[in-house]
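Hi support team,

I'm opening this ticket because the web form for multi-chain structure prediction keeps timing out on my end. I have pasted the exact lines I submitted so you can reproduce it. The total is 473 residues across two entries, so I didn't expect it to be a heavy job. Is there a limit I'm missing, or should I split the entries? Thanks in advance, R.K.
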Amino acid sequence: MIEVNGYWNPDKKAAPRNHTLILSLNSFCNNAARSIHNIVSPTVLISHPHGRNEIGINKERLWKSLLGNALNPNVFSILVVGYEEKTTGAFVEELRKMSRKKVESVLVLNGGTLNAIHEGSSKAAALVQESSEYQREPIPISEFSLGLKCGSSDATSGIASNPALGKAVDRMISLNGTAIFSETTEIIGAEHILAKRGINSSVSRAIMEAAKRNEDLAISLGVDLIGTNPVPDNIKGGISTIEEKSIASIMKSGSSPIRGVLDYATPPPDKGLYFMDSPSAATEVITALTAAGSSVILFTTGSGNPVGSPVAPVMKITGNPNSVVTMKDHIDVDVSEIISKGKSIDFGGEKIFNALLKVLSGKLTKSEILHHDEFSPIPVGL
Amino acid sequence: MEQKVIQLSKKDNVAVAVTNLHKGDILQFDGRKLQVEENIDFGHKISLTDLKAGQDIIKYGEVIGTATHDIPAGHHVHIHNIKSLRASKND
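Hello R.K., no limit was hit. The queue was backed up. Here is the completed structure from your submission:
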């Protein structure tokens, strides 16, 4: 059994971090939420440009993203910064129903932004002090859930970083852990390979159908995917088509059986490897993965990508020897020796797995150190 | 000798440059010689054989697109001479 030094959070979920979250419920609460976050330390911040007049699926997804991220294992307590009483009250009530975490709230409509900052900072300070009492203790790695993502991919992603991450993920799954990968557009051209890994025919069919839905959507828009996916930096890095990108992209999921296809921002029902049907842009995917309970994101990159998350460490892994130098402030794990020195994929997998154990035990990622806390609760990309 | 290109599967008709390739370079490849016909950047693909317009491009042992032009061996293979077979308005 492999153990790391993590926390058991108030919901008895394993967590590598013990954050107090300042969560803005809508765009014009961002100012107060950000001010409270700046005054009260350490806290993490969720702010976003939504929260009014959403309808149908957008409303559902906004609610699901915000609730899911508040429920993320790394969040130990929450200050909700809302505008008016009804929506804020409903959100707080829903959170309290689903979790034993301490939840406080403050209303901007109750005396304005300055008043909300004053009242909210006082409440947040008490939450931070309580969250800080939790101690790290040995926890089996099987209790953690990983989110997998690739971004700013180039030709090295398919040669080095993605297959190496796949080895680390295979190991995580063989130890009875959990991992989720997504990016539906980036299985187009590779769905036949993934479908063979479904644990039954209904999972295999769901994988094929997810790819077809996104392909049909692209066709219905009357556009070429080229320039959107692959994006210009993918093309500069040598990737020519979506098929080429997809075949490399799915390598990060390793070779384990796929137990199910999850809806956007939906937690897996059990341990093991899952695919989430989602858009492909980094911020949108990470928001959905952390809403689904991933407490650390393993992120492979070719040319280098700075993206982070408010609630989870995002580990950047590259196999590109140039990016190790040019984007060094963002890279956590260097597996470029697979290309520059002919080292094995297994060597890369081992390096990533060992780095993961350290991050789960408290080592900070560059994304955390540089305050990369991007968040996008309503996906619009393909 | 420093490895200059990687063929990811034996089925592939393209390889990936893992260093910047220059016109006139001679690659020792799979027991034969391949002359580089134009400069090709790190990470970009080189044709290993003469490819005909309409022919499948194979990388990782899988189809990644189709040639839009004839591509003689030793040339740069990218968006100017291959295209996706998926989600394309031109299909």
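A quick check on our side: Residues 112-131 of chain A form the longest helix (20 residues). Let us know if the file doesn't open in your viewer.
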